[in-house]
Amino acid sequence: MLRRSSLILVVLAALLVVSLVSVSAQDETLKISLVVNGVLGDKSFFDSAQRGMDMVMDEYDAEVNTIELGIDPQNWETGLEDAMSDVDNYDILIAGTFQMIDYLAKNADKYPDKTFIFFDAPMPYDNAEVCVDGCKNVYSITYNQNEGSFLAGVYAAAMSAVAGDGKPEVVLGAVGGQDIPVINDFIVGYEQGACLVSADSKVLVQYAGSWNDPAKGKEIALAMYDQGADVIFQVAGGTGVGVFEAAQEKSLFAIGVDSDQASIIQETDPEQAARILTSMQKNVDASLFRAIGLYLEDALPVGEIEGLGLDTNGVSLSINDIYTAATPQSVQDLVAAATEAVIAGDISVITVFADEASAAKVGQGCAAMPAAEFDAASFLSQ
């Protein structure tokens, strides 16, 4: 009896240990810090990142601390360093945009047991002057914004051509926040897409010099509409809100960026939302949610860059009720066919991020665009 009792006690003790380990594992909450070099509420890029974190918290046992560094660049470096040094409050730290590369790269090696996810710019792993110790604990996400913007250009030019209005050429607009490579990558793709539809297309381009100046965005957009633009693509963050205001005032149209901006404002301002025919989504939310899933599966390719395009849902056009109601079926079919052609490699989208000899430049004109075996006119003639 004693032996049997001893055996029972041993088994019960073992089961208790297993149970405690199991409970401990279940209670191991993943801690994430999202560092935003700006503020939430842009209804665009940073809000998309926050939506990704909301998705993570809904799906996984995770806590997210979002740190808004504000719009003054003077605060970004010290703010990120403070967040990185707060090691008890994160397992993963997420930051993004090209302005933050150097700040994160020079400090990541100080925290070798932490994982860093950097989005919307390539981490220069091979540059020892920037990436201390090779940034081995940093995973870098880039988005093929040129591909998504190519579709936006196809769409905008097609909608302008279908509208007609007796004009001899397609005139579009693009408002950028700053004259920087990543914004120019949007614009060159947009220009190429417009050229695919009409070799006589003209894209007016201007930079606001700010990401948080709606009044400036509106001023630029009103001038472009007065110059004949039917559709304006805003790639200017909060400044782009002014583009939407101008579109509403002129009863013309705009294309949003980074998020489905029409759906975001539809409830509060349906009249303005109706002027945003689509948005070129940089699916930050989906990419961050994907990255956290890979991390939890121990499959995150840390120390590498992943470029996410049309084929991985890294970028896309917003297809919503506004798009469907406003867009003729012929244009919808054209956009769908152009999407498949890019994914299949039948259309090569130009980019500023290429070697010096082949890097695209804003304003290079339709004559300089690569040839494509794609007949856009056949869709619009239906």
Structural overview:
The chain has 382 residues and is α/β, with parallel strands linked by helices. 43% of the residues lie in helices and 17% in strands. The chain has helices at 2-26, 45-59, 76-85, 101-105, 145-163, 181-197, 214-226, 241-250, 261-265, 270-273, 284-296, 321-326, 329-344, 376-380; strands at residues 30-36, 62-68, 92-96, 115-119, 138-143, 171-176, 202-207, 231-235, 253-257, 276-282, 305-308, 315-317. The strands form two sheets. Strands 2-1-3-4-5-11 form a six-stranded parallel beta sheet, with helices on both faces. Strands 7-6-8-9-10-12 form a six-stranded mixed beta sheet, sandwiched between helices. The protein has 14 helices and twelve strands. It has two domains: 30-143, Rossmann fold; 145-281 and 319-380, Response regulator (Rossmann fold, 3-Layer(aba) Sandwich). 46% of the residues are buried.
